[in-house]
């Protein structure tokens, strides 16, 4: 009798095991960006977009490697510093992540990418410097249009749309600022314009009087600055003090509420380019914005929808492979084709750059950023 009960109990336990849902297994994804200091608002914006995607994926009950996947973000603060970024990258690798969503800055992403590539970890970064995906790694992918593509659009816009023939350039010597400005310089010259001055500063500077005085003497029709809003805001104020009438044109780092606050009443007339299209023109921008505001109780920033799509790109590649193992899903990521929040045609070229090129020019009018022009094309 005891044997019968024992066999019955064993059979019931086996049946329950077969009927039970797959055990949840944590899929850890690394993330690094500036989370403290003057660029912390960029990092927070990016992290929120990633977190929203991971929470949605967890709610869907996605199964990978025979288990229900529970996605978790392993966050690190790289302080927008290249040396810190390399240390953080090694920490992320040592924590056993299965992919990396970051870094934010080009100057941190590029040195960190070697660490991830050596570990065989796919990396989808916000970095826009061309160098990031030109290193020959098969693990590097982007969330946004590159500076080569964006710089070309900005240079043509200044010469053709603004009618600026003589253009002065300033960059902050970071990988992002210098890289973008180099591309703008090439595009200006191809479009028939002339670079009348090339000045340099740093991403820690706050006084630009000397270089602006030099530029004023050159009678530039427009001034392009490759750098952060923490510098472009004070720079715009100092241009007004020096009575420089030429418009300030900058990249996506300037297209922010921080710039508006720092520049104050001198912000009007400033132009900024942004890789991508306005959120209300995105494929599912309205849906994303609604979900973002519900989750974080504020409007999404510039980078959050691209971070959101970056996370879903990696998750989708894992779904297609049925695995979170990098060696299994990397090829799926490289060949990915999907419709996301930012575009209906998300796909990568052989380097990991986005196939679809989209750049939007904004201008400050009455203290607010307003769209001027959007350019969408194929990179091929």
From TrEMBL:
It comes from Vandammella animalimorsus. Keywords: Signal. It comes from the Bacteria. Residues 26-367 form the Leucine-binding protein domain. Belongs to the leucine-binding protein family. Residues 1-24 form the signal peptide. This is Branched chain amino acid ABC transporter substrate-binding protein. Pfam families: Peripla_BP_6 (PF13458). InterPro entries: Leu-bd, Peripla_BP_I. Gene3D superfamilies: 3.40.50.2300.
């Amino acid at each position: 009798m005891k044997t019968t009960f024992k066999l019955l109990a064993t059979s019931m336990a086996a049946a329950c095991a077969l009927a039970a849902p797959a055990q949840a297994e944590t899929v850890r994804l690394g993330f690094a960006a500036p989370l403290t200091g003057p660029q912390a608002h960029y990092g927070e914006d990016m992290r929120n977009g990633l977190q929203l995607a991971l929470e949605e994926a967890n709610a869907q009950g996605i199964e990978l490697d025979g288990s229900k996947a529970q996605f978790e973000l392993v966050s690190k603060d790289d302080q927008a510093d290249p040396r810190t970024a390399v240390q953080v990258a090694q920490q992320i690798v040592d924590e056993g992540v299965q992919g990396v969503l970051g870094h934010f800055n080009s100057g941190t992403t590029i040195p960190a990418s070697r660490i991830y590539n050596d570990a065989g970890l796919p990396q989808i970064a916000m970095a826009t410097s061309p160098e990031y995906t030109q290193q020959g790694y098969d693990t590097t992918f982007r969330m946004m249009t590159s500076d080569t593509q964006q710089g070309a659009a900005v240079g043509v816009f200044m010469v053709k749309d603004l009618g600026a023939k003589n253009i002065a350039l300033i960059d902050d010597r970071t990988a992002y600022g210098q890289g973008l400005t180099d591309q703008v310089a090439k595009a200006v010259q191809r479009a028939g314009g002339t670079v009348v001055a090339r000045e340099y500063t740093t991403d820690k500077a706050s006084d630009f009087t000397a270089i602006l005085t030099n530029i004023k003497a050159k009678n530039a029709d427009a001034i392009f600055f490759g750098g952060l809003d923490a510098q472009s805001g004070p720079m715009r104020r100092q241009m007004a003090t020096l009575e420089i009438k030429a418009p300030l044109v900058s990249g996506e780092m300037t297209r922010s509420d921080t710039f508006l606050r720092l520049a104050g009443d001198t912000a009007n007339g400033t132009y900024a380019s942004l890789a991508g299209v306005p959120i209300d023109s995105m494929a599912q921008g309205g849906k994303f914005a609604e979900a973002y505001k519900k989750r974080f109780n504020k409007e999404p920033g510039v980078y959050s929808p691209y971070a959101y799509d970056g996370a879903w790109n990696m998750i989708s590649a894992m779904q297609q492979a049925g695995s979170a193992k990098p060696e299994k899903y990397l090829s799926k990521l490289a060949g990915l084709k999907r419709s996301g929040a930012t575009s209906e045609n998300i796909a990568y070229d052989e380097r990991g750059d986005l196939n679809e090129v989209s750049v939007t020019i904004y201008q400050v009018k009455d203290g607010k950023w307003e769209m001027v022009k959007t350019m969408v094309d194929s990179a091929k």
